[in-house]
Design goal:
Helix content: 40-55%
Largest sheet: 2 strands, parallel
Order of helices and strands: EHHHHHHHHHHHEHHHEHE
Structural class: mainly alpha
Strand order of the largest sheet: 1-4
Number of domains: 1
Strand content: under 5%
Length: about 350
């Protein structure tokens, strides 16, 4: 049960703390019920090596636009526009590819997935793929545990945003920085090793090459594409959609079923993903179809743009609108043992 309020009314202007719950993570319970009625979902689990084709295409497009900015002498303001209307979507899609690699959903060998994630990260301006892999698997295993779940904002972030339009807008704009500042509290994750260093060298090497070969405008395009892809842009609503308490019934995870899933590789199917993290992106709609009795009868979103605007203007949704718990969850959901997703790191 919730140890505080049962309504999200205090999640806004009057609230200065997160929600807390003593209930078990539903994602360790619901998939067992679903798979009892739909055992065919086990057949959807596995690898999709063709995802690497998408990774290659996205990296090529992003670097290609940077080259075009140099070739056509696009000014800095033109680079910013290009980043908002094109680069943000490409980098967001690359985030999804990094996410797939973090769950080892491309290849059988973990190292190949890690290398594919670094390659996807190479056109994203900031080195994050290897670290994301480790923190994200903790998020699945221990959702809501503040010391283990890097998806949770810090208390400082929530106080900084202060539930004002300007505060939340700046928080979204600086979201990549906010995520980085969460890492010191992750005590059970090794922050630096050879893979992290390789990730750093590859991404920073691409950034340096863009600056010296393609010029400042192209460099600005790469940088702005990152910040728009997860920040002050309708795509930034994805981070609000996934786990913020945006409905009246205190629902911890929401899916998005709108048209942008087409260019976001079905990342909106977030309940389905948390229930069955061994299912690659292209089969998540099949999971929704099989489990429609469950997924169609809980709250979900059909518009990232409307949610983005709600988050910015609605004082009933703040950075504090997240669920926390104190007890660790089991490491692996039993229905996902076929392709284990949560490992000791």
């Amino acid at each position: 049960m919730l140890s505080e309020t049962k309504s999200r009314e205090t999640a806004g202007a009057k609230r200065h703390d997160f929600y807390y719950t003593e209930e078990k993570d539903l994602h360790f319970i619901r998939p067992i019920e679903i798979i009892k009625e739909h055992p065919e979902i086990r057949e959807y689990m596995g690898k999709n090596p063709y995802t690497f084709i998408a990774v290659t295409a996205l990296v090529s497009l992003q670097i290609g636009i940077a080259i075009a900015i140099k070739q056509f002498s696009i000014p800095w303001w033109g680079a910013l526009i290009a980043a908002y209307v094109l680069g943000a979507f490409l980098v967001h899609a690359l985030f999804v590819m990094v996410h797939e690699c973090s769950h080892n959903l491309l290849f059988k060998r973990k190292q190949l997935n890690t290398l594919a994630g670094i390659f996807a990260n190479s056109a994203m301006f900031f080195p994050s793929s290897v670290s994301f892999q480790r923190y994200h698997l903790k998020h699945h295993a221990h959702q809501g545990i503040h010391e283990l779940d890097a998806d949770l904002p810090s208390f400082g972030e929530a106080e900084f945003a202060n539930n004002t339009f300007l505060g939340k807008a700046i928080w979204l704009l600086l979201y990549p920085i906010m995520q980085t500042l969460r890492l010191p509290r992750m005590k059970e994750v090794k922050h630096v090793d050879k893979w992290v260093l390789l990730n750093f060298v590859v991404v920073v090497g691409v950034d340096v090459a863009v600056w010296f070969v393609l010029g400042p405008a192209a460099f600005l395009y790469m940088c702005a594409s990152l910040f728009f892809s997860v920040g002050l842009h309708p795509l930034g609503a994805r981070w609000v959609q996934e786990h913020y308490l945006t409905t009246d019934d205190i629902q911890e995870t929401h899916s998005y079923y709108g048209p942008l899933n087409i260019v976001a590789f079905n990342v909106g199917h977030h309940n389905e993903h948390h229930d069955f993290p061994s299912v690659p992106w292209n089969r998540l709609p099949k999971v929704r179809k099989a489990g429609e009795k469950w997924y169609n009868n809980i709250a979900y979103h059909n518009s990232w743009t409307l949610l983005w605007l709600r988050f910015l203007f609605d004082k009933n949704i703040s950075v504090y609108s997240r669920m926390l718990r104190k007890k660790k969850e089991p490491k692996v959901s039993s229905v996902n043992k076929r392709v284990p997703q949560v490992e000791s790191v």
